[in-house]
Design goal:
Oligomer: heterodimer
Strand order of the largest sheet of chain B: 4-3-6-1-2-5
Number of helices of chain B: 7
Structural class of chain B: alpha/beta
Distance between the termini of chain A: 21 Å
Order of helices and strands of chain B: EEEEEHEEHEHEHEHEEEHEEHEEE
Structural class of chain A: alpha+beta
Shape of chain A: globular
Number of helices of chain A: 16
Largest sheet of chain A: 7 strands, antiparallel
Strand content of chain A: 15-25%
Helix content of chain A: 25-40%
Order of helices and strands of chain A: HHEEEHEHEEEHEEHHHHEHHHEEHHHH
């Protein structure tokens, strides 16, 4: 297994699959620290294997699987959708904005037409067609944010701005990485980020909030965040911790050769968009998972991932929930992944 | 990922300049003129929050530089097919309002995209909207949204007899939630009672001349209103005296910028290609604050505290000027 993999790494003539070429590899240097790492959205980022970043909504080969997974999770736990009463207008605003984003990015698949007050949204991939009147709840089968959530792979959080702060007052989050929307809903931006280590001393979170509060209608920014995850499991919310928490220990105690297949680098591409009519900030979170085995097919990535994980301070590793899996990941990269430290 | 990128792809219209066409003008009162602007193609314009304003380039001043005024948007807010402003003629102003009053259907007008600085607080249980004179303009867009989203609200509108802009429309929108006053003393007395009689969780929004806002916020404080529930937007800063000319020396660049009478320091800096972040251009939002190294400042803003003005270490270049002939800025 290791030898064939090594051959693959060194054979540049083999075309890499989309899941690798489109992966938003997040590390631009050999160390990682929290920062207010926001940049204007919409530009294409080139990576060692390909690139990403053209559209704020991103549809890939996992579209049907991930939407089916979202349906399953929502059916099992309706609290993954939350909206405080005053967020009705923000929900509508977010829904129409996302529809327009889908049309802009994939005009072959999505349609949004207007006839007087009535709009018609079509998703040809899912065979869904829905007419609605903006703001009129009787024209939709369910709350607007939950409706549009069934058409995108992104999680969405809507932040209301008032009292000189931002508040996470609505959201549709089925693919949380070790947090809970139900727990966070109604909290301020600063409260939500309370448990993050280091950032409070360095002022990263207040700076980020100040930046977000200054966004003007229509402005879009983005950033990435990352962690490690065992297996291709999108739903790692606090609610399901009993189902996935122990996998981290089991992987660490299991055979090293399994790690490349079972340990994933999980990258969130987050978009921040100021909505026009509600004034809310729409926070899109798109989670991408790539196994260490796949990462090892791009030598620049495996080398850099090894350096970043090796150098990462303990408190940051603890918060990211990777204290158990980081060691096995590093060992696998050295043993089977072609990394020479 | 801390790539820096100048590419603003996907930031449609944010902070952009729009070139619109006058589609309609209506004389609402002897002094107030309503103007509608639209894309020649009829395309929808960027949405905005209630209380938003646009900065309009009102021709050029006597010095040949663009004159810019901000005006509240009075029309529909969601993907509107036009922007509407209502402008009172300021005889003693810098000529911007006169320029608006001279516009004709078909004229082209340059504006910035809408800026939100006076948005409703969506968690409010009740919205107490108060307008003095032409201060009705941002309140009107608040009323529109309150009606559409079924929010609890009432409006108190004080104006000089015969000069009440948008009365018909307000009556249609508010029904019996509209209270009109044409005498300031009567209005003051009435507001005293209104302010001490609101349900918990009410937010107060006021727009009007400085004297009215000062009085009202004073009354609200006296009635125990927390500051977080009191929101106001001044207007009438356009009536500022044009001021004396002076020179701003930019210490870091070692450059002198001359500021003519009737031109703001902010405009003078912009015309020299020096970008200063700004929002209201009326001395209320705090966005354009600049550090002062030397010289005496004539503070004309409503943003800095008395202590900050006293210290003289910064100024709001959108309205404030030099007291003498020279100011030195850390720019």
């Amino acid at each position: 297994m290791s030898t064939t993999l090594d051959l693959t790494v060194r054979d540049a003539s083999i075309e890499l699959p989309d899941r690798i070429t489109r992966f938003p590899f997040p590390f631009v240097r050999d160390t990682y620290r929290y920062s207010t790492n926001v940049e204007p959205a919409g530009s294409h980022v080139e990576t060692a294997a390909g690139g990403w970043g053209r559209h704020p909504v991103d549809i890939d080969g996992h579209y049907f699987d991930e939407l089916a997974e979202r349906e399953r999770i929502l059916a099992a736990d309706s609290t993954r959708f939350q909206s405080l009463p005053h967020m009705e207008i923000a929900q509508w605003n977010a829904m129409v904005t996302l529809m327009q984003m889908l049309v802009d990015a994939y005009p072959q698949t999505f349609v949004l037409e207007q006839d007087g007050a009535t709009r018609r949204f079509v998703n040809r991939a899912l065979g869904v067609e829905q007419a609605f009147v903006f703001g009129d709840r009787s024209t939709l089968p369910e709350p607007p944010l939950r409706f549009i959530g069934r058409h995108i792979q992104e999680d969405v959080v809507l932040l209301d701005q008032r009292e000189d702060a931002l508040w996470g007052d609505a959201g549709l989050v089925t693919f949380a990485a070790d947090w809970s929307l139900r727990f966070d809903v109604g909290m301020s931006f600063l409260q939500i980020h309370g448990p993050v280590p280091r950032v409070h001393v360095e002022g990263v979170i207040p700076r980020a909030q100040h930046f977000l509060m200054g966004l003007q209608a229509g402005q879009r920014y983005r950033r990435t965040n990352w962690s490690l995850s065992v297996d291709r499991r999108l739903d790692q919310s606090t609610e399901t911790y009993p189902e996935w928490g122990r996998d981290r220990r089991l992987l660490a105690e299991g055979p090293l050769e399994d790690v490349g297949r079972r340990l994933y680098l999980r990258v969130e591409v987050q978009h921040l968009v100021r909505l026009g009519v509600s004034g809310a900030i729409m926070f899109l979170i798109r989670s991408h998972l790539l196994s260490f085995e796949d990462i090892a097919r791009v030598p620049e990535w495996s080398e850099r991932l090894h350096r970043v994980l090796d150098e990462l301070p303990e408190d940051m590793a603890e918060y990211k929930g990777i204290t158990r899996t980081r060691g096995p990941g590093l060992r696998w990269l050295r043993t089977y992944g072609g990394v020479r430290p | 990922m801390t790539l820096t990128s100048d590419i603003s792809v996907g930031n449609p219209a944010a902070g952009a300049e729009l070139r619109l066409t006058v589609t309609d003008t209506i004389e609402l009162t002897p002094t107030v003129r309503h103007v509608r602007l639209a894309e020649p193609s009829g395309r929808a314009l960027p949405s905005f929050t209630p209380g938003s304003h646009i900065v309009v380039t009102c021709g050029t001043g006597p010095d040949g530089r663009p004159r810019r005024n901000s005006y509240s948007l009075t029309g529909p807010a969601f993907e509107p097919d036009h922007y509407a402003i209502s402008v009172r003629l300021e005889e003693s102003g810098r000529g911007g309002s006169q320029w608006i009053h001279d516009l004709r259907v078909g004229d082209r007008v340059s504006i910035g995209t809408p800026r939100s600085a006076f948005a409703p607080v969506l968690t409010a249980r009740h919205h107490l909207l108060v307008a003095g004179g032409i201060g009705i303009t941002p309140i009107l867009s608040h009323v529109r949204a309150a009606v559409q989203w079924d929010r609890s609200f009432e409006v108190h509108y004080v104006f000089r007899g015969g000069d009440g802009a948008h009365l018909d429309e307000l009556q249609q929108l508010c029904g019996n939630g509209l209270h009109l006053h044409t005498r300031r003393d009567e209005f003051r007395e009435r507001m005293g009672a209104v302010l001490s009689n609101q349900p918990i969780g009410t937010h107060l929004y006021a727009c009007g001349p400085a004297s009215l806002i000062d009085e009202l916020t004073e009354q609200a404080r006296g009635a125990g209103w927390p500051d977080a529930r009191v929101h106001y937007e001044h207007f009438g800063i356009g009536d500022l005296e044009p001021g004396e000319p002076f020179t701003a020396h930019l210490a870091r660049r070692d450059v002198d910028v001359h500021v003519e009478s009737g031109v703001s320091l902010l405009e003078a800096l912009e015309s020299r290609g020096i970008a200063v972040p700004n929002l209201c251009r009326q001395g209320v939002c705090g966005e354009c604050r600049l550090p002062v190294v030397d010289g005496v400042v004539d503070h004309r803003d409503l943003y800095l505290s008395a202590a900050e003005k006293e210290a003289g270490e910064c100024l709001m270049p959108c309205v404030s000027r030099a007291t003498g002939s020279r100011l030195e800025l850390d720019l």
